[in-house]
Amino acid sequence: MMVVVAVFTIMSIIFFISWLAFLPQLPKFQIESANVSLLNATGSELTAIWDFTLLIANPNHKLNAAGRFLSEMEAQWGRNGEGSGCR
Q1: Which of 19, 25, 38, 73 is an S-S bond match for 59, by CB 3.0 to 4.6 Å?
Q2: Number of domains observed in the structure of the chain
Q3: Which domain holds residue 79?
Q4: Angle at 70 (CA atoms; ends 68, 73), nearest 5 degrees
């Protein structure tokens, strides 16, 4: 039991020192522009072309972030699970 407490204490101290060294912050997200064109409502179906420009800023100077973003996405929403999904 003492070994478990000692290991937990050591790991906690290492984590705390690492956190102090890096001071992690959440990335900042901002929608720069949004455009909806060719909006069409037929019956219960709504179609449109949605164009968003999303800016992401990383305030962490000691930590790096990399990512891959989708350029196209087709999404469908429905009620009670009918037709909901994203591809």
Answers
A1: 25
A2: 1
A3: 26-86
A4: 160
